[in-house]
């Protein structure tokens, strides 16, 4: 019995990592689909029994990485990382660079998938050091190929696409020397990443070439093929070849809908949204915008749930190591220090955000009171939704003479209450519409807005809408991930271009530039977060 269990361990730890690194989510989903819950539970119990029966650190490390792989297949990133971290501790007690390298590859991948890129890089660097001790040329090339592929992922996350291409070419060179079964899948994964890297650099011919190379190597529909079709569809969108784009995106969506990988669905929905916007089908574009946002929120919730939980809960149950009083004190002091740093950076970030709001409000007020006559953009001339608010000066003066002070005060109070809600984001907003909501007439309403809000009706609504979306961008990070067209729809604009023009006129920034400014502030949080995990 023990021999068969060891055979299972050897099979999993020697075959899973190399394939998992190339296209982990796709393979996990396909494997999980073929494995019943009962068999998965039995496999986990077997791995646990093997750990208890193991007498030395090497066998314990083997059983732990087996459990990690099983939890990885199950989609439980937290437990997969916990068991792999414990395996990393165990393998450090023996001289086995082969298994040690597989464990570091596994951890580098898992931390990247949950968004902890600095911690992932830590294990990549550790993996390169271990690889120098591997004597088997085949295993050495496998390790180098996987680690260079992981480095390419990291560079792409940072937007360093030329560096990503360099690492992917190195990765392919190492994989070509291996000659293992399944090399086609590994190579196809690198080709697909090269396609992505060139696509991001707007080199569409090169990108298509690598996507096609990857497609040829894949014999059956798979998650990886879904990514390739989505990439080819994206190229056709850029080239405005709508019919061909539709063909590829239909294929990509079919694979995505039959797959558990949320990232693939999110990417496919984004491209399909662009497709329908391109052919001016607003109804279907909105449908896929909603699907995209739903996927984004699910992915974000999943990653946040992992990051916010302590990884050492499951690890401590395996280690059974007595921690000395001195170490406990050191940990407490370290936690207090990290907590102090976190509070300091959080306080500093809040002050920066407060200052940013003040600057924006000051600029807005200045723009309202000092409009340029010629060269500067006047956002008052940009229609909200072709609003009918034209009145002559004579009509406005007549409103002044007809309106009582009591009526004017009451209408101003109603306007102030109106600003506290978000009715101004209604796409049907117009001067007659709002007059009806406030139970007044258009002349009175136009007069009060001009006199007390220092703007005509269009300018007034524009300002309220842009201030609304600014507050959302500042206070809710998920809005910074939305496409500009989704932000435009959120605050009532019917077109991307009109929203961008008004936004820049009000803030002096384009929407994308403003989001980058807020993200730059957010790096303070990230630096503290990575320190906690290192």
UniProtKB/TrEMBL annotation:
<feature type="signal peptide">
    <location>
        <begin position="1"/>
        <end position="20"/>
    </location>
</feature>
<keyword id="KW-0238">DNA-binding</keyword>
<dbReference type="Pfam" id="PF13424">
    <property type="entry name" value="TPR_12"/>
</dbReference>
<dbReference type="GO" id="GO:0043565">
    <property type="term" value="F:sequence-specific DNA binding"/>
</dbReference>
<protein>
    <submittedName>
        <fullName>AraC-type DNA-binding protein</fullName>
    </submittedName>
</protein>
<dbReference type="InterPro" id="IPR009057">
    <property type="entry name" value="Homeodomain-like_sf"/>
</dbReference>
<dbReference type="Pfam" id="PF12833">
    <property type="entry name" value="HTH_18"/>
</dbReference>
<feature type="transmembrane region" description="Helical">
    <location>
        <begin position="325"/>
        <end position="345"/>
    </location>
</feature>
<keyword id="KW-0802">TPR repeat</keyword>
<dbReference type="InterPro" id="IPR019734">
    <property type="entry name" value="TPR_rpt"/>
</dbReference>
<keyword id="KW-0812">Transmembrane</keyword>
<keyword id="KW-0805">Transcription regulation</keyword>
<dbReference type="InterPro" id="IPR011990">
    <property type="entry name" value="TPR-like_helical_dom_sf"/>
</dbReference>
<keyword id="KW-0804">Transcription</keyword>
<dbReference type="GO" id="GO:0003700">
    <property type="term" value="F:DNA-binding transcription factor activity"/>
</dbReference>
<keyword id="KW-0472">Membrane</keyword>
<feature type="repeat" description="TPR">
    <location>
        <begin position="188"/>
        <end position="221"/>
    </location>
</feature>
<keyword id="KW-0732">Signal</keyword>
<keyword id="KW-1133">Transmembrane helix</keyword>
<feature type="domain" description="HTH araC/xylS-type">
    <location>
        <begin position="413"/>
        <end position="517"/>
    </location>
</feature>
<dbReference type="InterPro" id="IPR018060">
    <property type="entry name" value="HTH_AraC"/>
</dbReference>
């Amino acid at each position: 019995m023990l021999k068969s269990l060891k055979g299972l361990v050897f099979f999993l730890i020697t075959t899973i990592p190399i394939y998992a690194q190339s296209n982990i989510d796709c393979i996990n989903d396909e494997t999980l689909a073929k494995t019943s819950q009962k068999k998965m539970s039995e496999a986990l119990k077997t791995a646990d029994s093997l750990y208890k029966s193991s007498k030395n650190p090497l066998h314990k490390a083997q059983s732990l990485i087996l459990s990690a792989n099983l939890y990885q297949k199950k989609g439980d990133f937290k437990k997969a990382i916990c068991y792999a971290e414990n395996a990393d501790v165990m393998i450090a007690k023996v001289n086995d660079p082969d298994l040690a390298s597989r464990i570091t590859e596994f951890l580098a991948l898992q931390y990247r998938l949950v968004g902890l890129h600095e911690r992932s890089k830590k294990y990549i660097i550790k993996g390169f050091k271990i690889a120098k001790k591997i004597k088997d040329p085949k295993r050495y090339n496998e390790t180098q190929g996987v680690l260079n592929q992981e480095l390419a992922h990291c560079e792409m996350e940072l937007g360093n696409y030329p560096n990503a291409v360099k690492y992917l070419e190195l990765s392919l060179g190492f994989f070509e020397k291996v000659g293992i079964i399944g090399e086609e899948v590994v190579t196809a994964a690198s080709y697909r990443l090269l396609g992505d890297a060139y696509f991001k650099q707007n080199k569409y011919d090169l990108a298509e070439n690598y996507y096609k190379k990857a497609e040829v190597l894949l014999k059956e529909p798979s998650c990886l093929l879904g990514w390739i079709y989505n990439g080819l569809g994206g190229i056709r969108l850029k080239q405005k070849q709508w019919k061909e784009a539709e063909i590829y995106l239909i294929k990509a969506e079919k694979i995505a809908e039959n797959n558990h990988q949320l990232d693939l669905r999110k990417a496919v929905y984004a491209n399909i949204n662009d497709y329908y916007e391109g052919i001016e089908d607003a109804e279907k574009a909105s449908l896929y915008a909603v699907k995209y946002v739903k996927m984004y929120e699910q992915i974000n919730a999943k990653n946040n749930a992992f990051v916010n939980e302590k990884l050492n809960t499951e690890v401590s149950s395996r280690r059974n190591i007595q921690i000395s009083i001195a170490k406990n004190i050191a940990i407490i002091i370290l936690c207090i220090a990290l907590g102090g740093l976190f509070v300091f950076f959080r306080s500093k970030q809040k002050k920066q955000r407060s200052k940013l709001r003040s600057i924006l409000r000051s600029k807005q007020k200045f723009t309202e009171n000092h409009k340029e006559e010629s060269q500067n953009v006047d956002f008052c001339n940009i229609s909200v939704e072709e609003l009918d608010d034209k009145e002559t000066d004579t009509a406005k003066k007549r409103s002044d003479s007809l309106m009582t002070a009591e009526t004017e005060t009451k209408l101003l109070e109603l306007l102030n209450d109106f600003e506290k809600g978000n009715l101004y984001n209604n796409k049907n907003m117009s001067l007659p519409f709002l007059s009806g909501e406030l139970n007044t007439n258009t002349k009175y309403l136009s007069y009060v807005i001009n006199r007390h809000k220092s703007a005509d009706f269009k300018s007034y609504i524009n300002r309220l809408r842009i201030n609304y979306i600014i507050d959302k961008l500042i206070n809710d990070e998920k809005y910074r991930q939305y496409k500009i067209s989704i932000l435009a729809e959120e605050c009532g604009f019917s077109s991307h271009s009109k929203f961008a023009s008004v936004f820049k006129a009000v803030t002096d920034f384009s929407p994308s530039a403003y989001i980058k400014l807020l993200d730059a502030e957010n790096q303070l949080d990230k630096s503290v977060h990575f320190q906690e995990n290192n």
